């Protein structure tokens, strides 16, 4: 018997902490805060990487590889950047048996070293735009690590571009944000809230940070990725200048944007249920698991032939499947095993199915059908598409239910955000003072919603504030 | 005008050092010994990765991700392993603003941390074999770095497997060696010499190291990858035990195997010529470059339509191509530019070609043909296959010419290996004493050729040695 998972409704956090291990996405590592991504988790991440990589290339970016180590002095060149990152840095002080003259920082992000290279490459307006992407591991020392959500080492892509004009740079920032949003919608079946970070919450060294955030079942927001218009300060810091078409010297406008293995955590939280994780078919490493129900004295050869035909059908539709022939485990054990791992479709094939030329099809959400084995490939493909759409629909409904529109927040009630499992949409006066009043409530402004032209309320969410409101915001606790 | 490259025959080393930068495969980085892999080099590496990854998966391995940092104590667990790697380690001593209790080593290879995890995962014979692969960056502090060939940080895959029996483990070691050899032959068009490393040259902690080496135009051997049967000492060091089918406790047999971005360096050296690098079509990021030869007052729209048709043809054959429309550069400049970058085929399309429904086709080796634009996709595909085969043929011929069979080596002549640009095949008595006599000649035994059943000579390559010979070996200087 497999142990049950903690109750997903009452103990969501414990549920998450167990399900990721039991589904074998990840394992504890002997290095504090770093994770071991197991084959199943890695296959899931690779599916995400493949799609994202193709999108990044289709929008005109090229991959490159920059050093893991960054000279400490590089990070110091941009004042806000080093201030933001210095508490999280891992530093190499010794190498090759000697103390290094200058310590090397293990990259927490690569702006500084990439901008140093940009400065070598950009001489003329003809060299622009430069549109680079890097798939890499980065290190940020975390005090409260949680696998996928917050780890000292994580995996990500970081885009870095340089443009001749601010307008073009900002278009890039929006383009990539939109790429991320559609990736989340179309592949991860995760609807997100997108907007702009406040001055306090933006990336260290950026002029504008756009963000997309998911609202998790516990009401906490998860920042799933960001897209930054960097101020020209990085270009100044690295003396990155180019000759314009008119012959002047100018500083280029830079952007950076990234998303990480955190997306795996989001996927687990958004779709999972009491029986385990649920993977959207478009990113599931295994879309269909076939479980032969073998009885004693059954004709194994006939089973094999029958399942071979099903395999051919699935292959023709390019469906990723696995046949679980393991004879040491019962069918019931296997059902739980693959449910826990979120495989969208299960085919059960017993003696009766063989005789009826049928397959017993069970979706991860529990719907059961008998389907003829003829054209089972088409049948499965349609069903997978349906599941993909259903998951998005369900997640959209949940997002809608999780965001409450509210006029004011009781900032004197420190347990305002406790146990309600919701996020709030409200209006804000744009002042840092009001924003900071959320700190004792362990909540923050997750983003300013750009698309709203006028504030919902004339009064700021802070009851005693008398300033006029400027924008709408999402306020929540966060991961 | 583009500067010429150093003479490839007289100054091979200088030629290499310049061509990799001029072809924009790589750039100098501000971190000593680490390289920046530029988009063109990265695209080439990604082509290699895609093929190798598919082969690794097809042979039953799964990718996973393990931490970058390894606790120092882990490396100390296997005595030979730490002895071999300790001079090359980069060490993180501070993180998150504090001195670490135990320093963390940036992985030079991941045996120790992966074996630690294997010990958690392997309990019973049913858990075996475990067949894992990791794509990762690793760090080894190099005193004399050269891009791709020897860099402080490099990119690689490292396979790690555990088996119930030594026989099965050794089969794995041979299987992966053979996968590498066919990858080199079939994709990189590089014939290699494969064999076993001597006791002195094997991987620190291994029982047997198999290697495959290319002989470069300067006669030096380049170790392109290795496949190790690890002794059980790693299993002992990490207390990795499993219950056998018979209920006994046993230590599994481990393997590891890897190949690196060094393959890019091999490719450059093996195929390049005075005009630049030459890329085998199967790994070339761009297989065909199309250069419109636009004259003043030519009908640009007609050109665009004509080239559009060619593009459709190439797309139908899934050929990777690029149309160089840049109006700031002359056709002659572009010819040199793309030759330098090793693009296998160039299509020149001028006014006359338009009128004759033709394309002027030039291979990277200089063969010129006029081809009809109808079915140009098929034509190009055939020609690319021919080029791929020709490159392998040429490289095989060169390898044959570079390896001299010789009875003895004048170990008193310290310049024996100078300026001859050849490697030697000879016989050896298996003694370390004779092997060490090569050191003053700056040469080494690259491998013992396993496939040779009897020694070529009864006398060892060391003239004064009186021991009987046991095997044949390849002796050369090396990278």
Topology diagram in text:
2 copies of one chain form a homodimer.
Chain A (H helix, E strand, L loop, with lengths): L11 H11 L3 E3 L6 E3 L1 H20 L3 E2 L5 E3 H5 L2 H7 L4 E6 L2 E9 L4 H11 L8 E10 L13 E11 L2 H23 L4 E4 L9 E10 L5 E10 L2 H5 L4 E2 L5 E2 L2 E8 L1 H10 L16 E5 L7 H17 L4 E3 L7 H10 L4 E5 L1 H5 L2 E6 L4 E5 L3 H27 E3 L17 E6 L3 H5 L7 E5 L22 E6 L3
Parallel strand pairs in A: 3-7, 15-16, 15-17, 20-21
Antiparallel strand pairs in A: 1-2, 4-6, 5-6, 7-8, 8-14, 9-10, 10-11, 11-14, 12-13, 17-18, 18-19, 21-23, 22-23
Keywords for this structure?
homodimer, 479 residues, alpha+beta, Rossmann fold, Translation Initiation Factor IF3, 3 domains, seven-stranded mixed beta sheet, five-stranded mixed beta sheet, 13 helices, globular
Helix content of chain A: 25-40%
Oligomer: homodimer
Identify the CATH homologous superfamily of the largest domain in chain A: Bira Bifunctional Protein, Domain 2
Q: Pair with the most extensive interface?
A: A-B, 55 and 55 residues
Rg over CA atoms of chain A = 25 Å
| Cross-sheet strand order for the largest sheet of chain A | 3-7-8-14-11-10-9
Distance between the terminal alpha carbons of chain A, to the nearest Å? 33 Å
- Bin the strand percentage of chain A: 25-35%
CATH topology of the largest domain in chain A, what is it called?
BirA Bifunctional Protein, domain 2
Summed up, the helix count of chain A is 13
- SS-based class of chain A: alpha+beta
> Based on the structure given, which CATH architecture of the largest domain in chain A is correct?
2-Layer Sandwich
- Low-pLDDT regions of chain A: none
CATH class of the largest domain in chain A: Alpha Beta
Quick check: average pLDDT of chain A? 95
How many domains of chain A? The number is 3
Q: What about the largest sheet of chain A?
A: 7 strands, mixed
Q: What's the overall geometry of chain A?
A: globular
The overall strand count of chain A is: 23
């Amino acid at each position: 018997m497999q142990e049950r998972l903690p109750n997903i409704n009452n103990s969501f956090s414990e549920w998450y902490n167990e399900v990721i291990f039991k589904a074998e996405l990840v394992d504890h590592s002997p290095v504090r805060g770093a994770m071991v991504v197991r084959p199943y988790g890695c296959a899931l991440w690779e599916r995400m990487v493949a799609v994202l990589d193709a999108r990044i290339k289709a929008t005109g970016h090229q991959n490159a590889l920059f050093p893991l180590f960054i000279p400490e002095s590089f990070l110091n060149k941009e004042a806000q950047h080093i201030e933001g990152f210095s508490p999280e840095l891992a530093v190499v002080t010794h190498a090759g048996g000697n103390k290094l003259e200058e310590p090397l920082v293990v990259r927490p992000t690569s702006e500084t070293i990439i901008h140093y290279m940009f400065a070598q490459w950009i001489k003329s307006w003809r060299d622009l735009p430069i549109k680079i992407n890097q798939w890499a591991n980065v290190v940020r020392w975390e005090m409260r690590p949680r696998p996928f959500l917050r780890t000292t080492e994580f995996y990500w892509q970081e885009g870095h571009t340089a443009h001749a004009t601010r307008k073009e740079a900002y278009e890039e920032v929006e383009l990539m944000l939109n790429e991320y949003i559609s990736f989340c919608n179309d592949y991860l079946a995760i609807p997100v809230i997108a907007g702009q970070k406040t001055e306090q919450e933006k990336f260290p060294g950026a002029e504008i940070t756009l963000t997309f955030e998911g609202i998790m079942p516990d009401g906490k927001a998860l920042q799933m990725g960001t897209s930054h218009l960097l101020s020209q300060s990085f270009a100044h810091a690295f003396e990155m200048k180019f000759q314009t078409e008119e012959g002047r010297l100018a500083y280029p406008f830079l952007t950076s944007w990234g998303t990480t293995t955190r997306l795996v955590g989001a996927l687990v939280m958004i779709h999972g249920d009491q029986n385990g994780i649920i993977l959207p078919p478009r990113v599931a490493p295994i879309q269909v698991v076939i479980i032969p129900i073998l009885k004693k004295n059954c004709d194994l050869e006939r089973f094999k032939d029958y399942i071979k035909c099903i395999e051919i059908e699935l292959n023709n539709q390019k469906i990723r499947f696995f046949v679980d022939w393991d004879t040491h485990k019962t069918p019931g054990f296997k059902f739980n095993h693959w449910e826990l791992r979120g495989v969208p479709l299960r085919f059960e094939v017993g003696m009766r199915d063989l005789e009826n030329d049928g397959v017993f099809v069970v979706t991860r959400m529990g719907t059961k059908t008998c389907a003829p084995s003829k054209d089972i490939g088409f049948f499965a493909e349609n069903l997978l598409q349906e599941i993909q759409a259903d998951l998005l629909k369900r997640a959209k409904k949940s997002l809608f239910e999780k965001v409450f529109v509210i006029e004011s927040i009781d900032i004197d009630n420190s347990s305002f955000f406790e146990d309600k499992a919701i996020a709030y949409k409200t209006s804000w006066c744009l002042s840092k003072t009001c924003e900071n009043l959320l700190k004792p409530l362990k909540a923050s402004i997750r983003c300013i919603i750009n698309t709203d032209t006028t504030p919902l309320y004339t009064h700021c969410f802070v009851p005693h504030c008398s300033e006029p409101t400027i924008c709408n915001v999402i306020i929540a606790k966060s991961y």
